[in-house]
Specification:
single chain, 378 residues, Enolase-like, domain 1, TIM Barrel, 2 domains, eleven-stranded mixed β-sheet, three-stranded antiparallel β-sheet, globular
Length: 378
């Protein structure tokens, strides 16, 4: 069997799927993770196509090495393209052999995957109410975002003390509303300065956050200080683009949770390598997953296999999952768990003509400013 081509599929606001074709008619599907740069990643896919057409798609490790070690430049767009190709090759190989990907990775270590979902609201009370609705629906793990309130001029003008007081009050309110048996995590989205991250961590520590996500931008020395001093378990790494970055993080810090994104870190091949190193260090894995059905399915296949899996991000907010209308058969979610798909390959199918049902619009973000006109980290 030989690879004959790659078809990029742009859809929705942040999706770039792809289809790898073969001379035997078998196809595999992947998803690329550099959202906001989908068109650029699609162009890279066509460049990589020139390198792998004619190769045996079963040689996944060889192709991963060819695309990760043999190219001159690196970066999130390039790695997103590689990641999508890698996922599609695993999907294709599973289909060719008639087994789920997890069987090719060594078999399941668990039967179902625990997930956390997002509670959303405008203030502490509405966030707590949303969290209560989720826990009443059977979810035992929820996340809320610290947000960045803007004034009438669109500026983020909170002082150090105001930010710490607001977020710690939100954590306290949610904890008092849902009780102590629910896991609550805090999404900072790299929006804090190191001093803010340390003080906020110490302030929320009495309310037992499950994890403290991406408190600051990706600076290893600063992150080491935050991890050492904030007093709560930190989870980070969602923007890392290869296993070496995770190695540096785990070597130089006491990080407790890492967040590889299958669609940008190098696909399932890289995800397995990253998880294996983390396992030896006693570090647990919380895969990043803000994207579509294929991203989710790729995560689930890895989650099923690795012993050091912690919990899976699932793109559901206040009980509504945007993936259900994008798949022929939605994931089975019950009491805060997803059943691992057991069909061949990824075990899922996108709806027909997803790019026509959900025309590509793109999502490119914007510039966020502090009150003084300086840039807010994201």
């Amino acid at each position: 069997m030989k690879i004959t081509g790659i078809d990029p599929i742009l859809a929705g606001t942040r999706y770039l799927f792809l289809k790898i074709r073969t001379d035997e008619g078998l196809v595999g599907y992947g998803e690329c993770g550099a959202w906001a740069y989908q068109e650029a990643t699609a162009a890279v896919l066509k460049q990589m196509e020139k390198m792998i057409v004619g190769l045996d798609p079963m040689r996944i490790e060889f192709i991963y090495n060819a695309l990760s070690r043999n190219l001159h430049f690196r970066g999130s767009v390039t790695q997103a393209a590689l990641s999508g190709i890698d996922i599609a090759l695993w999907d294709l190989k599973g289909k060719a052999l008639g087994v789920p990907i997890y069987e090719l990775l060594g078999g399941k270590t668990r039967e179902k995957i625990r997930i956390y979902v997002n509670a959303r609201g405008k203030d502490a009370e509405s966030l707590a109410a949303a969290a209560k609705n989720l826990t009443d629906s059977g979810f035992s793990a929820i996340r809320f975002s610290i947000g960045h309130p803007k004034d009438e001029n669109g500026r983020c003008g909170e002082s150090f003390s105001a930010l710490v007081n607001r977020v710690s009050n939100t954590m306290k309110t949610i904890r008092e509303t849902v009780g102590w048996d629910t896991d609550i995590s805090i999404e900072n989205h790299r929006g804090l300065r190191p001093a803010e991250a340390i003080e906020l961590g110490r302030t929320v520590a009495p309310y037992r956050p499950h994890f403290y996500e991406d408190p600051i931008p990706d600076n290893l020395e600063a992150m080491r200080t935050v991890i050492d001093e904030c007093g709560v378990p930190v989870a980070t790494g969602e923007r890392f683009i290869n296993p070496m970055e995770f190695d540096s993080l785990m070597t130089t810090t006491k990080v407790r949770y890492i967040r590889p994104d299958m669609c940008v870190c190098g696909g399932i091949t890289a995800g397995k390598k990253i998880a294996a190193e983390a396992e030896q260090r006693g570090v647990y894995v919380i895969p990043h997953n803000p994207l579509g059905p294929i991203s989710t399915a790729a995560c689930l296949q890895l989650d099923a296999v690795i012993p050091n899996f912690e919990i899976q991000e699932y793109p559901m907010a206040n009980g509504v999952c945007r993936l259900d209308g994008e798949m022929k058969t939605p994931f089975h979610v019950e009491n805060g768990y997803i059943t691992v798909p057991d069909g061949p390959g990824l075990g899922i199918e996108l709806i027909d003509d997803i790019d026509k049902v959900f025309p590509f619009k793109g999502a490119y973000g914007g510039i966020n400013l502090h009150e003084d006109g300086s840039i807010v980290d994201r």
